[in-house]
Amino acid sequence: MAQPIITLTDAAAERVRKLMAAAGEEPVLGLRVGISTKGCSGLSYFVEYAKEQKKFEDVVEDKGVRIFIDPTAVMFLLGTEMDYQEDKLQSGFVFKNPNETSRCGCGESFNIN
Questions:
Q1: Looking at the 3D structure of the chain, how many domains does it have?
Q2: Tens digits of residue pLDDT in 6-58
Q3: Is 1 inside a domain boundary?
């Protein structure tokens, strides 16, 4: 069996369900996860609503939710676990990516060699 591109913790799946419920009137199929170029280390994760499946996009169904994987991000995300963490100062999705080789001090970006 092939390694999944991304898996979700229970907390991440629950947060995706809450975001889907709060999406409003426009139909949303799931969340899209991708990689953008920014930050001190060069790469950063992005998460957005997926209103349609884009060409060549993979769809991961885990714990009852759908995550659409931007085709340019697949090679960077293989084996990644998506979590959701919340504390007094911040909340958000956290990615545990075995492909990361370094991360900037502020935690906003990462690097893969």
A1: 1
A2: 999 999 999 999 999 988 778 899 999 999 887 665 788 899 999 999 999 99
A3: no
